[in-house]
Design a protein that fits this description.
Length: 127
Amino acid sequence: MLGAFGAITDINEQHRAEEARIALAEEREHMAATRAEEAEAQRQLEVERRRAQELLIDVTSHELRQPVSAIIQNAEVVRTNMKGLRDLLHDCQRRKISYLPTERMLSELEDDLQAMDSIKQCGLAQG
């Protein structure tokens, strides 16, 4: 006796599930790349801010000897920090995302207030 046995299996569902897994993996990869780009941009911003803070420290050590120079340098520190904040907020607005200030940003705003106080004191010393 000769016979045959066969089975037919519908693998469409398995194929769709595999496509969904691939799409999810690609989406996760894209999100990871986006986060990496944002982290790099944030790192570069932090480097620029650190330079501005170093300038503030340098300026503060000289402000008693050079009040006019201190006024100019402190104003530049404040301007640099404000420009960075403006650019960051414009970027958030453009991308339609909210911004939660970091501890570093709040610290830099405090540094800016101190720089403004130094500018005022230097101005008073000139008068």
